[in-house]
Write a structure and sequence with these properties.
The chain is mainly alpha-helical. The chain contains four helices and no strands. It is globular and about 40 Å long.
Length: about 100
């Protein structure tokens, strides 16, 4: 995936997040989930070797993790803890797999 493609994907994810946030603030959790899901569909599968290059973009990883966390919150608003947990774990995995190490101080 080229840098331009990664940037376009980041823009798609951010747009989906913004749309979802609007619905979330209105407590319209079903519409928030639908909006967040549009962005999640564009996220690379970290377990798929063919999609690894796309997953190397720090901006995409951060935007994707935020999107997944927001969708998890919307699932909790709908009293759906199982998909909320799945999204939270996926977000955590994306960050843990690609986070840079810094010394504790």
């Amino acid at each position: 995936m080229s840098a331009d493609d990664a940037n376009k994907l980041v823009e798609l994810v951010v747009a989906a997040k913004d749309e979802g946030n609007t619905h979330y603030k209105e407590k319209d959790y079903k519409q928030a989930i639908a909006a967040y899901s549009k962005g999640v569909k564009g996220l690379p599968d970290l377990d798929d070797e063919d999609e690894k290059p796309a997953a190397e973009s720090p901006e995409l990883l951060k935007a994707g993790a935020v999107l997944l966390c927001n969708r998890a919150a919307a699932y909790m608003g709908e009293n759906k803890p199982i998909p909320a947990l799945a999204d939270a774990q996926r977000a955590s995995g994306a960050c843990a797999d690609h986070a840079t190490s810094t010394p504790a101080g």
